Amino acid sequence: MVYKFFGDTIVARIDRGEEILLSVKSICEKENIKLASISALGAVDHVIVGLYKVAEKKYVPNTFDGEMEMTSLTGNVTTKDGELYLHMHADFADGDGNVFGGHLNEAVISGTCELFIHTLNGTVGRKLDEVTGLNILDF
């Protein structure tokens, strides 16, 4: 992975074999980023995405392996209990044009990933919402 600042935005290239969430976490920790928006696209060969079932208060993961285009990744950086908190969703397309996605738990790059992190001044925390079981934004 390599990256460079352009004003308040980091442009990063995540390389073959690297995992997206770990790469973003590494950049944010190194650069002390506490609040940001994230967008990316690229090629992957292993992903785990999830669906949160509100009534059950749990994530259900789905694992996909094989050649896929990451057609869209969007997310944010916040904090929870003073620690870095990443929240990302992504869509992936297989060779037949089928698209699937959800809450991103893991994605391994097969070709390259072009990632943009738009940093913001300040911090936004998260707190547990007892009704849904989700870690919601806390201002």
Can you walk through the features of this model?
This protein is mostly beta strands. The protein contains one helix and eight strands; from the N terminus they run ββαββββββ. Strands 1, 2, 3, 4, 5 and 6 form a six-stranded antiparallel sheet that branches. It has a two-stranded antiparallel sheet with strand order 7-8. Strand 4 and strand 5 form a beta hairpin. The longest helix is centred in the first third of the chain and has 12 residues.
Features:
139 residues; six-stranded antiparallel sheet; two-stranded antiparallel sheet; 9% helix
- What's the helix count? 1
Order of helices and strands: EEHEEEEEE
Query: What is the number of E strands?
Result: 8
How confident is the prediction overall: mean pLDDT?
Answer: 97
Given as residue ranges, the uncertain stretches (5+ residues, pLDDT < 50) are none
How would you describe the shape? flat
What is the alpha-carbon Rg in Å? 15 Å
Structural class call reads mainly beta
Strand content: over 45%
Separation of the first and last Cα atoms: 33 Å
Helix content: under 10%
Largest sheet: 6 strands, antiparallel
